[in-house]
């Protein structure tokens, strides 16, 4: 896709992680560069944990415009940056780095990218209640952004108590007006909390990989027609959770919009241009089909 236009002036943007072979980021960013006629190229690099610092320093030495960071290094990379944004501080994780005249500035666009996908469904954080399944890294980015943008109530369901309590504590310290609670996963409690919720959000891996065909919600009475059900998984495009929710009359949303949203925000940080989101969406939908 990029070999015919690489020149001595081409600017480099990269992805660091392990693994990276499954990432769609090189495809969507290079497609966006071509759309705008920008002389950039995006490449993915698998990096071992003990080589991450050298990889970051190498990209800085090469004057790369920036890079994305994916699992499992979103927290570890913080130690090698010069500055981080407020969102990155709240999430304690970075997924996007911009090289500003030799200073590496870390951003977290995951949460904002998720809210962009909600906004396309005419859902905003401010004044609304959200039920979130899971308390891992993806959940933290989403929960902190919901609180930052004015959600009145967030209810976390998670199997691991320490992770959920840590996330609760962070929200309470930074956003005291946001009411946040935690429960262990139990269908009757989830059903109760979803009765007046705007959206139910699955941030766990149940529904993909070895868990494909499974749903974290096993009682369809949890669903009601006023509830939007979101699964941040994008492959498969319609998880078992979303199938059950749709059959129960819910509005559903998968993780494709979040992937595009966080990528668009990173693209703007690096290039100053808007990502052609509809073009990227059409490309990814066609690819998944």
Automatic annotation (TrEMBL):
<feature type="domain" description="Quinate/shikimate 5-dehydrogenase/glutamyl-tRNA reductase">
    <location>
        <begin position="126"/>
        <end position="178"/>
    </location>
</feature>
<feature type="binding site">
    <location>
        <position position="70"/>
    </location>
    <ligand>
        <name>shikimate</name>
    </ligand>
</feature>
<comment type="similarity">
    <text>Belongs to the shikimate dehydrogenase family.</text>
</comment>
<dbReference type="Pfam" id="PF08501">
    <property type="entry name" value="Shikimate_dh_N"/>
</dbReference>
<dbReference type="InterPro" id="IPR013708">
    <property type="entry name" value="Shikimate_DH-bd_N"/>
</dbReference>
<feature type="active site" description="Proton acceptor">
    <location>
        <position position="74"/>
    </location>
</feature>
<dbReference type="GO" id="GO:0009073">
    <property type="term" value="P:aromatic amino acid family biosynthetic process"/>
</dbReference>
<feature type="binding site">
    <location>
        <position position="232"/>
    </location>
    <ligand>
        <name>NADP(+)</name>
    </ligand>
</feature>
<feature type="binding site">
    <location>
        <position position="110"/>
    </location>
    <ligand>
        <name>shikimate</name>
    </ligand>
</feature>
<keyword id="KW-0521">NADP</keyword>
<dbReference type="GO" id="GO:0052734">
    <property type="term" value="F:shikimate 3-dehydrogenase (NAD+) activity"/>
</dbReference>
<dbReference type="GO" id="GO:0004764">
    <property type="term" value="F:shikimate 3-dehydrogenase (NADP+) activity"/>
</dbReference>
<feature type="domain" description="Shikimate dehydrogenase substrate binding N-terminal">
    <location>
        <begin position="15"/>
        <end position="97"/>
    </location>
</feature>
<dbReference type="InterPro" id="IPR036291">
    <property type="entry name" value="NAD(P)-bd_dom_sf"/>
</dbReference>
<feature type="binding site">
    <location>
        <position position="86"/>
    </location>
    <ligand>
        <name>NADP(+)</name>
    </ligand>
</feature>
<comment type="pathway">
    <text>Metabolic intermediate biosynthesis; chorismate biosynthesis; chorismate from D-erythrose 4-phosphate and phosphoenolpyruvate: step 4/7.</text>
</comment>
<feature type="binding site">
    <location>
        <position position="234"/>
    </location>
    <ligand>
        <name>shikimate</name>
    </ligand>
</feature>
<dbReference type="GO" id="GO:0030266">
    <property type="term" value="F:quinate 3-dehydrogenase (NAD+) activity"/>
</dbReference>
<feature type="binding site">
    <location>
        <position position="255"/>
    </location>
    <ligand>
        <name>NADP(+)</name>
    </ligand>
</feature>
<dbReference type="GO" id="GO:0009423">
    <property type="term" value="P:chorismate biosynthetic process"/>
</dbReference>
<feature type="domain" description="SDH C-terminal">
    <location>
        <begin position="255"/>
        <end position="276"/>
    </location>
</feature>
<keyword id="KW-0028">Amino-acid biosynthesis</keyword>
<dbReference type="InterPro" id="IPR022893">
    <property type="entry name" value="Shikimate_DH_fam"/>
</dbReference>
<feature type="binding site">
    <location>
        <position position="95"/>
    </location>
    <ligand>
        <name>shikimate</name>
    </ligand>
</feature>
<dbReference type="InterPro" id="IPR011342">
    <property type="entry name" value="Shikimate_DH"/>
</dbReference>
<dbReference type="InterPro" id="IPR006151">
    <property type="entry name" value="Shikm_DH/Glu-tRNA_Rdtase"/>
</dbReference>
<feature type="binding site">
    <location>
        <begin position="134"/>
        <end position="138"/>
    </location>
    <ligand>
        <name>NADP(+)</name>
    </ligand>
</feature>
<dbReference type="GO" id="GO:0050661">
    <property type="term" value="F:NADP binding"/>
</dbReference>
<dbReference type="InterPro" id="IPR046346">
    <property type="entry name" value="Aminoacid_DH-like_N_sf"/>
</dbReference>
<comment type="function">
    <text>Involved in the biosynthesis of the chorismate, which leads to the biosynthesis of aromatic amino acids. Catalyzes the reversible NADPH linked reduction of 3-dehydroshikimate (DHSA) to yield shikimate (SA).</text>
</comment>
<dbReference type="GO" id="GO:0008652">
    <property type="term" value="P:amino acid biosynthetic process"/>
</dbReference>
<feature type="binding site">
    <location>
        <position position="262"/>
    </location>
    <ligand>
        <name>shikimate</name>
    </ligand>
</feature>
<keyword id="KW-0560">Oxidoreductase</keyword>
<dbReference type="Pfam" id="PF18317">
    <property type="entry name" value="SDH_C"/>
</dbReference>
<dbReference type="GO" id="GO:0019632">
    <property type="term" value="P:shikimate metabolic process"/>
</dbReference>
<dbReference type="Pfam" id="PF01488">
    <property type="entry name" value="Shikimate_DH"/>
</dbReference>
<protein>
    <recommendedName>
        <fullName>Shikimate dehydrogenase (NADP(+))</fullName>
        <ecNumber>1.1.1.25</ecNumber>
    </recommendedName>
</protein>
<comment type="subunit">
    <text>Homodimer.</text>
</comment>
<feature type="binding site">
    <location>
        <begin position="23"/>
        <end position="25"/>
    </location>
    <ligand>
        <name>shikimate</name>
    </ligand>
</feature>
<keyword id="KW-0057">Aromatic amino acid biosynthesis</keyword>
<comment type="pathway">
    <text>Aromatic compound metabolism; 3,4-dihydroxybenzoate biosynthesis; 3-dehydroquinate from D-quinate (NAD(+) route).</text>
</comment>
<dbReference type="InterPro" id="IPR041121">
    <property type="entry name" value="SDH_C"/>
</dbReference>
């Amino acid at each position: 896709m990029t070999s015919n236009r690489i020149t001595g002036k081409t600017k480099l943007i990269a992805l660091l992680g392990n693994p990276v072979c499954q990432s769609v980021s090189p495809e969507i960013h290079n497609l966006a560069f071509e759309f705008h006629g920008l002389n950039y190229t995006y490449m993915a690099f698998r990096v071992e944990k003990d080589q991450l610092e050298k990889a970051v320093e190498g990209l800085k030495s090469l004057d790369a415009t920036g890079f994305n960071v994916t699992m499992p290094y979103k927290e570890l990379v913080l130690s090698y940056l010069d500055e981080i944004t407020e969102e990155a501080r709240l999430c304690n994780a970075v997924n996007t780095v911009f090289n500003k005249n030799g200073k590496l500035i870390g951003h977290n666009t995951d949460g904002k990218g998720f809210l962009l996908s909600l906004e396309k469904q005419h859902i905003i954080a401010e004044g609304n209640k959200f039920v979130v399944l899971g308390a891992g890294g993806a959940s933290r980015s989403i929960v902190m952004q919901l609180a930052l943008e004015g959600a009145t109530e967030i209810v976390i369901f998670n199997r691991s108590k320490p992770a959920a309590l840590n996330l609760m504590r962070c929200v309470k310290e930074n956003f005291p007006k946001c009411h946040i609670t935690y429960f262990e996963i139990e269908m009757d409690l989830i059903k109760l909390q979803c009765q007046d919720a705007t959206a139910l959000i699955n941030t766990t891996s149940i529904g993909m990989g070895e868990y494909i065909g499974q749903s974290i919600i096993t009682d369809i009475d949890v669903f009601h027609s006023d509830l939007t059900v979101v699964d941040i998984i994008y492959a498969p495009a319609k998880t078992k959770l979303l199938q059950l929710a749709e059959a129960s009359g819910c509005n559903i949303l998968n993780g494709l919009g979040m992937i595009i949203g966080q990528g668009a925000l990173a693209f703007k940080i690096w290039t100053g241009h808007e990502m052609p989101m509809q073009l990227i969406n059409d490309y990814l939908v066609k690819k998944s089909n």
